Amino acid sequence: MSDGASTVHPAWLPAEAFGALGRRHTLVHGTGLLVDTVVDEVAGACGRYGGTVRRVPADVPATAPSPVGPAGGPRRHVPATAPSPPGDLLLALRDAAALPAWARRLTAGADGPLGDEGFLLAGSGDRTLLLADAPAGLLYGLFHLVRLGRAAFDARPVECHRPALARRMLDHWDNVDVHPVTGQVERGYAGGSIFWRDGAARGDLARVREYGRLLAACGVNAVAVNNVNVHASGARLLTERLGDVAAIADTLRPYGVRVHLSVTFAAPVVLGGLPNADPLDAAVRAWWAAAARRVYDRIPDFGGYVVKADSEGQPGPFTYGRDHADGANLLAATLAPFGGVVHWRAFVYDHRQDWRDRSTDRARAAFDHFTPLDGRFRDNVILQVKHGPMDFQVREPVSPVLAAMPATRLAVEVQVTQEYTGQQRHVCYLGPWWSEILGFAPWGPQGPTVADVAAGTASTRDPRSGAGGGRSATAGGGLVGVSNVGDDPFWTGHPLAQANLYAFGRLAWDPGLDPVAVLDEWIRLTFPPATTGDPGLVRRTLHAVLDGSWWTYERYTAPLGVGFMVRPGHHYGPDVDGYEYTPWGTYHFADRDGVGVDRTRATGTGFTGQYPRPWSERYEDLHGCPDELLLFFHHVPYGHVLRSGRTVIQHIYDTHFAGVEQVEAMRGQWRRLAGLVDPALYARVSERLDEQRRCAAEWRDQVNSYFLRKSGVPDEHGRRIW
Amino acid sequence: MSDGASTVHPAWLPAEAFGALGRRHTLVHGTGLLVDTVVDEVAGACGRYGGTVRRVPADVPATAPSPVGPAGGPRRHVPATAPSPPGDLLLALRDAAALPAWARRLTAGADGPLGDEGFLLAGSGDRTLLLADAPAGLLYGLFHLVRLGRAAFDARPVECHRPALARRMLDHWDNVDVHPVTGQVERGYAGGSIFWRDGAARGDLARVREYGRLLAACGVNAVAVNNVNVHASGARLLTERLGDVAAIADTLRPYGVRVHLSVTFAAPVVLGGLPNADPLDAAVRAWWAAAARRVYDRIPDFGGYVVKADSEGQPGPFTYGRDHADGANLLAATLAPFGGVVHWRAFVYDHRQDWRDRSTDRARAAFDHFTPLDGRFRDNVILQVKHGPMDFQVREPVSPVLAAMPATRLAVEVQVTQEYTGQQRHVCYLGPWWSEILGFAPWGPQGPTVADVAAGTASTRDPRSGAGGGRSATAGGGLVGVSNVGDDPFWTGHPLAQANLYAFGRLAWDPGLDPVAVLDEWIRLTFPPATTGDPGLVRRTLHAVLDGSWWTYERYTAPLGVGFMVRPGHHYGPDVDGYEYTPWGTYHFADRDGVGVDRTRATGTGFTGQYPRPWSERYEDLHGCPDELLLFFHHVPYGHVLRSGRTVIQHIYDTHFAGVEQVEAMRGQWRRLAGLVDPALYARVSERLDEQRRCAAEWRDQVNSYFLRKSGVPDEHGRRIW
């Protein structure tokens, strides 16, 4: 439990979420920083709800017992020497103590390794056992109990929980200085940064600690604390401002969250005064090596670097005639001795493209740049690949890079911050979208999924992937999300956008989870039944508002996978031609006859050929291509009949009318919660739903008018198009 | 002559421009600050070219003669008591001294009043006489001699010069603080402000003085020193920062330039702490009255206020249920005792318009807001009307407001800064455009012109204007230009954009001047024949590049008067649909069948009805409407045949191809000047012509592609459209 953040919304860790736990008599076996955290959490709960906690071995002297009781300082647990109530919950590190007989009975036969973060849960009804091999497992197990609530203490057979992905990371695009264009947080929609303000560290470590606690409770274990577009002050976090990073690392460490840093590839020049940053230059290598040593001196568990190189104007190895493997391996070599990794972003494309040139295709860029380098990256390089080939649109195919680099550790990058999905002014629950991405099977339904790729297990599951690396599970690159958190009292601007942060962590831990079930967890935790006027109605309403909100957002925005009909720059609201004649490579090519981008091998850019079968064939085939991606892959006449049976133009009209109607329905549903939930939260959501309604209608009208003006085809149902 | 600005380009006042004057023997009759300036200017020229200057009466003691000679401190003239060389140039205030016989002979019969700023020039060949009634006249006459060069001293009959417009003003949209969006100078394309930097006065008064000198030499006599969008620090110039304004006024005063201030209508609240700014509230009136007294205590010749009220978010009288007459008269009443005026901008429109609503028409707004108030404004209110009904587009009809308020003093506002005409990266000589506007005859060819309206003489010239006020010539509102000057070494970013500043002043003085002749003056002054390698070639080339550059710019940008196909926000470069679905009220309504805005009375917004005959009829008539304004007034099919015989769509294609070819030709012409003009200037212009070529091709391609995609009509000549 942290102090000093009392005006901040508790998100999915309100006191009430600890009610079942806090009534138990708990015994904790184990030592270490994260076990301390576990004990503190339990003690805090007991202080509120009357339970007790004992620890074995105790890490406070028996002569200074801290009574169990109302919340006070840290370490509010009963030392082992105090009189022992019957422990009905045992939290134990497997090697910390001999288990009692009941516990040994409950777990008979379940002695496989749980790993660094896994845990085992079993219960007889009277007694519950949580077992882990390492402190982090105990911490994750504890929050699992919190999630389960009273059900955690039912009788249950042994369950083992291990994260599918070892790396579950949030990247903060937080600027240290306020940037004249992108502000304090690039693509941030939740106020300022929780780390930085106006060029300096905020110093509000209570808030950072609270953040770490929320992350641990949804499963995130790594955070990059500054923007991948590294500006002047951000660059210096690596050197003279390293102390700021160390303070954050110290604060997040008790919750098992490691800190990573975005660095500029030009650091040897910018910070070191060297004449160049050539990755093959000995002085450059020495500079980076010294930098890494300094970092690990201060932060022994430092996670590593995040690098955006040769991308949208950031410096990179191309300047020196080197390639991305040269660049990434340079940094990786300096981190390897300390166990650090390099997250090297694959978001490399020509952002000075000529719209007149229909043969250049931004969608192809990451594949064309990186697949020739497969096998050349060091073991501690993680190639961080955006989930789609473009840029976090509401609908894109999965990036073919994810199926094309078997000898490279790949991380999947998704955007929790809603840059292109309503900027936290619109309700848009992204769990279903991420679930679809992670479950996508690039080699066909029998093959491994994107989640397997991120886990590093794709090659072991299906030889068709052509894997040469044979990586182990822990060698996957994991899942990375761009954070949606700011210094807003609700953390995420839109209170309901908390669900995205929560779902990100949960799906990173287990990509197989049903996103609606994850949402249900979030609802139960965040709106504890005891605190709401009508728990059933609250739960039903939140599901009604959130479950399908991603599809709703898709309906009223850019149709059929075509993407990028947003206002340039800030990316909020519609502008159908906004990027149509720009250098950014994001076009729809609408004319009076049709719309869409021909990316076929037969007549287009050939992008379909970057996929393995069966998708290379399905996407290529006008009639096999999924409707929702049709305009991503094909340029078709407005009269083209979709698999749904509707024409493209009628689909555009219908979905845009339907999307707005659905937003109106969401507003009506939400209004039923007046007086049933926290008034401040109610007001905030209501105000944002009004804006969502306004903006959705604007999307509907602009998109429909644009296509009516261009196609001349009237709406079959005669609705008003302006 | 000012010191301390030696790295700044001399613009149209290089030393060489004073060669003919500086070889003369000059006698100056008169006293006063501006006569001092005249003497200083002549002395400076004599110091360089060997002439002499004497003054009668002397304003320095006879015991301290200052020798005529090399440049030194100020007042380098020969006192009247020194031995007198034969004066072959006499500069005299008519009442300062008895004229010698030769001068009386030369001016026999020419004894009409010259006014505050007029002058009389006559010459026998041996002797030249410049006569004025007031010191400013002598100063303007002096710069007239400079402009004439050697020809000034030819024999010539009496010429009287009086400004057609008494008020010739530049508005600086300079922010005191750097604004997060608009920067130091809103719509500035020539670096920072010459007045302000980072929230403070720059203190570089030498540069300000040099600016005043340039203004006097082209005829400008008033400057507003801060942005009409008045932000926090700008507002305080009226109160605690008044000293900054006084320093500028002191610096400009010797060149006959009065200082005006943009004020916020909310000043009584923002600065005075009053609960409201209601113009009918006694406390508000008292606050403004006290403010005016304080201003005139510091700046006795303060010009007055400029006010943008109830416009694009600026505060105004609407907040209090009052109208613009109430608002303007409030301020005017407080300035009247001191001789000040209020420039009240008529740029009031709904910038939160719904694009779906085709009946609301931004073009109508100024007329609808202000004409009902005609006759209600105080004598010292000047209603400042943008030349067109929209916003400084490259082509608009003249604002009908200028023909509809006979009982109001009207100023015409033009934009010298090239917001919509290439932002001083493109060559675009605006003299012909302003000449066309000022020469426009709203009541038909026999009636008064826009220049007459600005001069206040429209009603005396033609009773059809329905004037009720019977204003005198000096009661016109004059011509106001938004300045294009910044702290750039060439003053205007693009060196050739100096011609616009020069032409603004000259056309304000005499709207009947031929803009090409004005340009020729500028060329001869700025590129003195003695300093260029091939004077004839330089002059021909500058004419070839500049003379038609406005029409060239029009050709490759928005066609046929439709306007606003620019990138939103910064307004540079093409974006055909950029404003099409926005709240700004600036649309073209292009669809697959046609393009243009129906502003007719018969079927459109009725805007044509705001004009008097004959224009109300001509604009209404599809076939009578001038081609260049067709799409401003009518929505027509792409196949509509223009008066030129071409279809609209073919006109679009042809002009866009032609415009780019003309820019290429300009580049070729300019290159002939390599080695013939100042290398730094040559390089600057060359670099900008490259950018103009790039940008013009971008305009061509985007506009042509947009209309080909929409219309499906191929180019008759089969040229490449993307």
Automatic annotation (TrEMBL), chains A, B:
Keywords: Carbohydrate metabolism, Glycosidase, Hydrolase, Polysaccharide degradation, Xylan degradation. GO terms for cellular component: extracellular region. The keyword DNA-binding does not apply. Residues 466-475 have a biased composition (Gly residues). The active site is at 312 (proton donor), 391 (proton acceptor), 419 (proton acceptor). It comes from the Bacteria. Residues 492-719 form the Glycosyl hydrolase family 67 C-terminal domain. Residues 161-491 form the Glycosyl hydrolase family 67 catalytic domain. One of its GO terms (biological process) is xylan catabolic process. It holds the Pfam family Glyco_hydro_67M. One of its GO terms (molecular function) is xylan alpha-1,2-glucuronosidase activity. Residues 57-77, 454-475 are annotated as: Disordered. Belongs to the glycosyl hydrolase 67 family. This is Alpha-glucuronidase. It comes from Micromonospora echinospora. The lineage of its organism: Bacteria, Bacillati, Actinomycetota, Actinomycetes, Micromonosporales.
